[in-house]
Amino acid sequence: MSTRIIKCPNCGVFNTNKEYCENCGELISHQKKREIKAESVKQEQIKEAIHDIENPNLAERLKQSPNAFKRVVGWVLYSVITVVSAIGAGLAWIIAMVAAG
């Protein structure tokens, strides 16, 4: 195992093979910082996915309504959104092909 000497950015003490500073307790390991950052990003993505599942958009809420009229309106709205998205994607593709020459 190689010796890693890391200077604490908080107090300036040099530490050997430590994740935390011996003097002030500050996290000094870059690998540990990356792991903590990756875990926080993962937790944020999980929160976002849960929020999206628990709070559907208007079309999805209408499609799941017990009222038949609201369900029909929801499906129509969903279909309109899908068609407009497809037209936009087609236009973007055409513009990209024209720009590419």
Structural class: mainly alpha
Low-pLDDT parts are none
Biggest sheet strand line-up: 1-2
The percentage of residues in β strands lies in 5-15%
String of helices and strands: EEHHH
Q: What's the number of extended β-strand segments?
A: 2
What would you call the shape? elongated
Task: Describe the overall structure.
The chain is mainly alpha-helical and 101 residues long. The chain has a domain at 58-101. Helices cover 63% and strands 6% of the residues. It has 3 helices and 2 strands. It has a two-stranded antiparallel ribbon. Strand 1 and strand 2 (14-16) form a beta hairpin. The radius of gyration is 27 Å and the shape is elongated. 4% of the residues are buried. The mean pLDDT is 90.
Please outline the helices and strands.
Blueprint: E1 5-7, E2 14-16, H1 30-54, H2 58-63, H3 68-100
Antiparallel strand pairs: 1-2
Structural key phrases:
two-stranded antiparallel sheet, elongated, 3 helices, mainly alpha, 2 strands, 101 residues
Quick summary:
By secondary structure, this protein is mainly α. It has a domain of 44 residues. It is 63% helix and 6% strand.
